[in-house]
Amino acid sequence: MGCSTSALPNSASTTAAPGVGVGVGIGGNGGGPNAPLPPLDANEKDGSLLFCIKLRRSRMRRCSCGAVTLQQQNGDGSTGSATCGDNIMCNQVLLNPQQTKNESDYEKLSTGKKDSIVTVAALGNFTHSVVRRATGTGSTGTSGTSSSGGGRPGHRKSSLALALTPEDEPMDVYTRNLMDLKYPTVLPPNPQLKALLVFHKSDSICEVVTLACQRHQLDVTLVKSKEEALDTLQKSYATAQCYHLIIIDARSTKGLDAEHIARTIRHTHGHHLTTIIAVCKKSFFEKDDALIALLDAGVNRCIAETTNLAMCSVELKQILHSIIRPHNVMSTQQALYTALHRLKEVVLITDDLLRIQYANRATERLLNMRLDEIISKPLADIFVSDLSTISEQGKSIKEFDGILTVRRKNQEGIPMHVRVVPVACIGSAPTHLIFNFDIPGGGMDFIATLPQPKEAPRGSLHSVRRCSFDVRSIASDGLRRTSLAKLTSLPLEAPITKENCSADEARLIDKVLEFLKREGLYSPQMKEIRTDDPIATDLIGALLTGPSVYSSRRSSNDSIIRTGNSTRTAIVPAKMKANPIVMELLEESLSWDFDIFKLEEITDYHPLLYLGMEMFRRFDVFATLNIDENVCKAWLAVIEAHYHKSNTYHNSTHAADVMQATGAFITQLTNREMVMDRMDEATALIAAAAHDVDHPGRSSAFLSNSNNPLAILYNDLTVLENHHAAITFKLTLGDDKINIFKNLDKETYKSARSTIIDMILATEMTRHFEHLAKFVSVFGSEVEPRELVQSEEETSILMRRMLIKVADVSNPARPMQYCIEWARRIAEEYFMQTDEEKQRHLPIVMPMFDRATCSIPKSQIGFIEYIIQDMMHAWDSFIDMPQLITCMQINYSQWKKYDEQGVNTLADIMAKQPPVGNKPSNSK
Ligand SMILES: Nc1ncnc2c1ncn2[C@@H]1O[C@@H]2COP(=O)(O)O[C@H]2[C@H]1O
């Protein structure tokens, strides 16, 4: 007789009968009473499998961490307690707290007669030796039996069932079938294990350790110093390899400082789950201080030196089973946490006292708070509703399901459908409560940070909700239905249109159109520039036209670009977080009415550094690039230092402003479930931060007209943007301390670089209409985007280009007070260019931008009408940010009013403004 075993993989069901005979059955395949254990397959070796095990109670003990472990059967027949291996996961755990279905498991174990036998279903990494020790059977004494009835034909049997001798007492049977396993686990990785041996010299001990590793098929690398060890680890990290086991010679501090090495490794990124073993002198085990110091430094286990290969091999085997394998299992938690974090649904976990222990990204968005503002807070702080029912139900392990009102940071209350699931991680009382939020009716509109104007007609947000970023479906679904009319009515068209033709011909024409589009046939004359409006003509002409217009004019050999000064020193404020005013302001850093000028002021003209770090943090850029925060900080500081403070407009505040808009757009895209992946977000933010770096405060046309070396270098083509992109990479790659890309693998780096360059080049205004028209024709078309462009990647490129373009010139769509300040800054910069052109007798690129005569309102009206308006409508239709349109319209009306009132000069306009730094009037 024996146990019937599970019919399905990774699970077991038992129907153990009283008085079962000695038996070890695997997969329900009958073995004779003395049949040897069949070998475990790969899954069984490394996976977390459900085992059905019958055990004598007296051989079990409860470990201090709450798990039930085995009592070991020593070779001499005595028993010893199985210990809780490394305080992370119990050694030879039979039932660990997370794996028990309910508390009765433990009760059954602890209350039955001392020597009765229980059958437990345990999820773990058991091996034959563990099982043998559990049952007290040696390799010869075990025999396999299994019931024939338990397994379903056709299914792989992977559970291991054990039973004790027939003379054992009747069993207090606890039966568990596979359905009891409520939550499936993620199978851990099953890698080829690699060991790094750090031995000062290759003596006999080192040799034995090496042989023992090889005996267990470990791939061994031997190094002789701390530096070599760290270098090897660094290299392995960069090539996505890893060492699972590091064995350090700790016998003497003369050769190697094992404690220091262990501590350094433990603090190195990616090594929190690496198993570190110290080989110590036997004498160390007589007093504990040296060993404890090693363990405190992060060593998992200290083993005694030996020249006996068998002993060393057994020791290593134990380490493989009891530490490395559980570590592998634990590493899979990262996958679960990532899934949880990326979930669109709001998930929040509290402890039993309702203090928040975990919140995913969706929670941050819902509450409009950062993680560090959420974690550890009492739940009552974020709920308006009374939580006593939840507490009560939680205590009695009952789920709660009801409507509660949650309070966002701005005190706005939102009624939410909340489900609360209590979980007991240790013992029987719930230790944690899992909160899952829904909006009644399913809407997610609460996430919008600014009020939506009533007049903006919108399709339901549901219509554009997607599980992942899929530009094609966005275009074919929400965008097309809600805003197609608006988009297609834009005065932008492909050069050829299809009329009166068959569907096949139309498709062919579309293909041809796309081909033509890529040849850059969209031209600046797509919108006629009114000749009676000289300011608009000047500005728009200068922005949209390439250098040829001016190339025939006279030039000068002077250069305005300061060359040879590529290593500006960047000052990184030591304690960025220390300034509470900055921190408070940055809390709003994703709002469209964010006050960038105040940030400029309170950071002493380092807005890019502060805003940049905030954006990098909010969008997990450190993790995405696998880079230390300090490298990012240094990078931002250097990039910021290469923006020219003397420019009134193209300085680091503009870069920070564009980065802020980029962050706001990414958030809005995510809110509408058009999710960019993490690398897309990171590259977009990097491109935004660097897109105008080292801008000389003069236009490309000016550089061409003045024979500036950059214009010569880039043949008058896209001069500034080429320079911004090139210097970004020159600076970044030129100094390891700021190289934010250094940990990316080759392919990822290549792709990130190409995206960043493409985005920076897209900010060039001479191709403005080309980019806009492509965007509109792809995202506003009746035709599926896939038929218009070659790949999803191309569609995504069009979207990213438009994102940075809109961010770059979003100032006319900012709240009025900011819009006016930006207009002042750009006008001042244009005036300075005109001043210099006059002074140096260069062609005057925008004669109307003369400080003595210029009408600022007219220039802004022209800029909005010709450049901004269509683009904002197209972008708003795509991402649904009606506040862009609202602000733009208010600003436009204001410029019109100023124009009518004859308020023209900068001085007139500024006299009418409240000082910047106060909240704008049209932001809410
Ligand atoms: N408010 C504005 N008024 C006029 N021109 C602007 C305004 N904002 C941006 N621009 C121009 O648009 C250009 C976009 O690319 P750049 O940042 O290189 O340079 C910018 C300015 O020349």
UniProtKB/TrEMBL annotation:
Gene3D superfamilies: 3'5'-cyclic nucleotide phosphodiesterase, catalytic domain, 3.40.50.2300, PAS domain. CDD domains: HDc, PAS. InterPro entries: HD/PDEase_dom, PAS, PAS-like_dom_sf, PDE8-like_REC_N, PDEase, PDEase_catalytic_dom, PDEase_catalytic_dom_sf. It is an enzyme of class 3 (hydrolase). Zn(2+) 2 binds at residue 692. Keywords: cAMP, Hydrolase, Metal-binding. AMP binds at residues 650-654, 692, 808, 860. Zn(2+) 1 binds at residues 654, 691-692, 808. Residues 135-146 have a biased composition (Low complexity). GO terms for molecular function: 3',5'-cyclic-AMP phosphodiesterase activity; metal ion binding. Residues 332-383 form the PAS domain. Its EC number is 3.1.4.53. The active site is at 650 (proton donor). Residues 568-902 form the PDEase domain. SUPFAM superfamilies: HD-domain/PDEase-like, PYP-like sensor domain (PAS domain). Coiled coil: none annotated. GO terms for biological process: cAMP catabolic process; signal transduction. Pathway: Purine metabolism; 3',5'-cyclic AMP degradation; AMP from 3',5'-cyclic AMP: step 1/1. It comes from the Eukaryota. This is 3',5'-cyclic-AMP phosphodiesterase. It comes from Drosophila albomicans (Fruit fly).
